[in-house]
Write a structure and sequence with these properties.
CATH superfamily of the largest domain: Protein of unknown function (DUF541), domain 2
CATH architecture of the largest domain: 2-Layer Sandwich
Radius of gyration: 32 Å
Structural class: alpha+beta
Largest sheet: 4 strands, antiparallel
Number of domains: 2
Strand content: 35-45%
Length: 234
């Protein structure tokens, strides 16, 4: 009987200790936001080369010649070949349609894209102009970014944590409580958003000679958001 009593007492003490350990302390739950604005230092440009000819061999040859001319013109600006790539090649017949519903092949179209990474933003307009004047006939995309985005994302994350801490301190003070520590942290997002105030316009001089395409890259926003639970005094 004595052994049974001791075992029962130990079991009760264990359950009481476990229950106490599982009780969540009082907390304040807040969200924090951090934003860092920074000027981009890299641009990625994709131009398209579209050619049309009567025969398949002629259109393939014309497209290859135009793409090579575009690449050579860009290299002449000082862009390294490792920063230039081609892709998205498409080859399709074109059709002539008749009133009676009949159609027949009347030629062929080939399209190719040239993507250029530019680390000197002063060259962005020149790259676009060189491509358009040497065989490219489309500007498919122009995106600005950062070579080292991690450093700015980390800074935005720090600001988000500090924002959460500030909110928690204000709330705790209003409740007459003190912040004792951090109970949990969740990182909801960390991203780099599109440039603000980005503008692109192709200009033409009065004498019809093309001038440099003016580019204003604007600024990028590196943002982060967090959710933090702070333990507070009872």
């Amino acid at each position: 009987m004595k052994k049974f009593f001791i075992l029962t007492l130990m079991l009760m003490m264990f359950c009481a200790t476990t229950f106490a350990a599982e009780v969540k302390p009082p907390t304040i739950s807040v969200s924090g936001e951090g934003v860092v604005e920074v000027a981009p230092d890299r641009a990625t440009i994709t131009v398209g080369v579209v050619t049309r000819e009567k025969t398949s061999s002629a259109v393939q040859s014309a497209n290859a010649k135009a793409a090579t001319s575009v690449i050579n013109a860009i290299v002449a600006l000082g862009i390294e070949r490792k920063n230039i790539s081609t892709g998205n090649y498409n080859f399709n017949p074109t059709y002539r349609h008749f009133d009676n519903g009949r159609s027949e092949i009347d030629g062929y179209e080939a399209s190719n894209s040239v993507t250029v990474i530019v680390d000197d933003l002063n060259l962005v307009g020149k790259v676009i102009d060189a491509a358009l004047s040497h065989g490219a006939n489309q500007v498919n995309s122009l995106n600005f970014g950062l070579r080292n985005r991690t450093a700015y994302q980390d800074e935005a994350l720090k600001l988000a944590i500090l924002d959460a801490r500030r909110k928690a301190e204000v709330a705790a003070a209003a409740l007459g409580k003190n912040i004792l520590g951090v109970y949990s942290v969740s990182i909801n997002s960390a991203s780099v958003n599109s440039p603000r105030n980005y503008k692109m316009a192709r200009g033409m001089a009065e004498d019809s000679l093309s001038v440099d395409t003016p580019i204003e890259s604007g600024t990028l926003q590196c943002s982060a958001s967090v959710h933090v639970e702070f333990e507070i005094s009872r």
